[in-house]
Amino acid sequence: MNYLGKTADFMKSRFGKQKIVASCTGVNDLLKDIQSQIDTRGISLNRVGIKNIDWPLKVYDQTNGFQNTVANISLSVALNHDIKGTHMSRFVEVLNNIDILNPQIILSILSSIQTKLDAESSFFECKFPYFIWKESPVSKNISPLKIEAMILGEKNRDETEIIIGVVVPVQTLCPCSKAISSVGAHNQRANVKILVKTKKKIWFEHLAAIAEMSASSPVYSLLKREDEKYVTEAAYNTPKFVEDVARDAALLLEKEDGLKCYRVEVESHESIHNHEAFAWVEKALS
């Protein structure tokens, strides 16, 4: 009580009695909803919202049921030309109601955003570290490999689209370097990004496997000497440009049932060049 009294005395001396009374008794009158005011400039905005908020979540795991992660999330809506702004806090209120991600929850998030913000279109973007437990090729030691998983959602009135994807580290070995060198060939780590729109469930693990099968070799968290020998020789015997990786991943994706479209992006962190090499391809299947 003494602390509150001192605080009140300070506020009176600093701001005056009249303002203190107003702040305590007329809060609702003073807190104007500026965002809901009319805007007369006639410009609609494609997206407004919050970006890069980290959120603890559970995600489904093909092997263990689920795993805990921290997701980086962006939420937004389309804003009509006659509305001044959106209410950013309402996006976070929607997140407060979720603790696990699945397709139904994402649909619920998109619908809730539309309802709370009276918007025609809503958008959801989420990326998070996802661990796949992998067995090393010879010693059979099991260790976790971190990939990046992502989910993108968009709802326009009654039409909803969800895209899932992964970014997977792999190894590439240059076919040209191998062909022109009497010993060895330059090799490096690369990232394969796969995004798909599908009619049925597809696991992150499955997309990661497609990325790894398309490369010169997978990468591992734990390798003993016998594993290193195997991986080195496997990559040397399977030289690939980024173009090869992108095309091989595309061919594997086109064999999948239920895919509506895909996009493959490959980026190689070149070991002997002062640049990255990349290739990407996208295609609608149905």
UniProtKB/TrEMBL annotation:
<dbReference type="InterPro" id="IPR022838">
    <property type="entry name" value="GTP_cyclohydrolase_FolE2"/>
</dbReference>
<dbReference type="Pfam" id="PF02649">
    <property type="entry name" value="GCHY-1"/>
</dbReference>
<dbReference type="GO" id="GO:0046654">
    <property type="term" value="P:tetrahydrofolate biosynthetic process"/>
</dbReference>
<comment type="pathway">
    <text>Cofactor biosynthesis; 7,8-dihydroneopterin triphosphate biosynthesis; 7,8-dihydroneopterin triphosphate from GTP: step 1/1.</text>
</comment>
<dbReference type="InterPro" id="IPR003801">
    <property type="entry name" value="GTP_cyclohydrolase_FolE2/MptA"/>
</dbReference>
<feature type="site" description="May be catalytically important">
    <location>
        <position position="174"/>
    </location>
</feature>
<comment type="function">
    <text>Converts GTP to 7,8-dihydroneopterin triphosphate.</text>
</comment>
<comment type="similarity">
    <text>Belongs to the GTP cyclohydrolase IV family.</text>
</comment>
<dbReference type="GO" id="GO:0003934">
    <property type="term" value="F:GTP cyclohydrolase I activity"/>
</dbReference>
<protein>
    <recommendedName>
        <fullName>GTP cyclohydrolase FolE2</fullName>
        <ecNumber>3.5.4.16</ecNumber>
    </recommendedName>
</protein>
<keyword id="KW-0378">Hydrolase</keyword>
